[in-house]
Design a protein that fits this description.
The protein is of the alpha+beta class. Helix content is 35%, strand content 26%. The protein is built from three helices and seven strands. Strand 5 and strand 6 form a beta hairpin. It is globular.
Length: 144
Amino acid sequence: MKVITLLFLTVFMGKSCSNEAQNDITNTAIQYTATSRGFYEKVIIVNQEATVFKNRRGEDNPQKIAISDADWSELVAQFSRINLEEMPNFKDPTQKRFFDGAAIANLKVRYQGKNYETFDFDHGNPPVEIAAFVNKIVTLVNKE
């Protein structure tokens, strides 16, 4: 009987945590920026919509992209795996940006009233801890 109760509570708690992650990311602002001398891209994701800026001076009209339910679910799943408190400690796997071999990228998250930010990393080669999340963002933007 204790085993059944324990299994039930585990499943119930697991379901509520995934719903909580869904609700939390809905109220979260995510900003991914990649820049070099000839390239600029800023993506801001808020509540299942991405806004893409391709001009650093803001002279262009930003592109709005609606995120499909399937892509949103994947983004929520990837977001729930990130330890936000550790974001400043994530190590970049490569340093091509130091000699113009890659654009300089970074990820900022505004979550529950707090700001979290990574150190700069190479666009196209993010830290392992956020690689799936960042790659999903880049894929969403380049899909259009």
